[in-house]
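Issue 218. Parser rejects a valid record. Input:
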Amino acid sequence: MENEDGSRATTYTTIAAGADFRNELEIRRSRFITVLRRAPDEETARSLVSDLRREFYDARHHCSAFVIGPDRMIQRSSDDGEPSGTAGVPMLEALVKRETSPKVTNLSDVSVVVVRYFGGILLGAGGLVRAYSESVSAALDLALLVQRRRLRLCSIDVPHAEAGRLENELRGAGYVMAKTGYEARHTVLRVALPDDAGAISEAHARLASLTAGTLELLPQGTEWVDVPY
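Output the parser choked on:
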C-alpha cells in the first residue's frame, strides 16, 4: 500500500540523530577517516562533504555516498579523484547491502564521507575497493542504529469523566498514546498505530469493545518516528 507521502515502506533503519559517527583506519600507510551523518534529505547529505572539506582541507580525497528515503530511492556516490568505481560505489554498496537484522537490508537516510590521506603506497583498484568498503562497514559497526516506523495517528473524543479510565485501558492493551488534548466538551486521546490495515481494524474493534461502540477512532494522518532497537 502506498502511503500519502508516496512511500510503500512502513519501516526502515537509520542511524541515531545528533552527533556524527567517526572512525579511522590505517591501510598500508594511508589514513581513511570515515564520518557518518543522519541525512533525511540531499541538502543534509551534501553538507557533510562540505563540512569535511573545510575540516580536512589538506586531504587528497573526500569520497562520498548517501542513501535517502523510506524506499531508498535516492542514492548517490562520488569517487572524488580516485579511479572510477573504486571509492564511491563500494561505499554506497556498504550502505545499501548492510544487514540491519538477519537477511534485512533497509538502511537509509545516511550520508557517509571517507577522507583519505595518501600514505605513499599505491593500493591498486582492488585494494581501494576493499579499503573504502571496509572503512564504511567499520564505522557502521560503531554507529547507533534506530528503526524508523510509520505510525497512523488517530484521535478519540472522550467525555472528560471517562478519559482517564480509557487511556489506562488502552495503554494496558499495549497501545502507544500520543499527546492528549483538552477541549471544552471532551478530552482528545491520541493513539499511534502501525500503519497497516490489520492493526487499524484491530484498534477499531478494541475501542468498540471498551466503549460499547459509543466512541470511534478518527484518522489524523501519519508520522515517522524513531524506535530504539
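Fixed in the parser; the record now loads. The first helix runs from residue 42 to 55.
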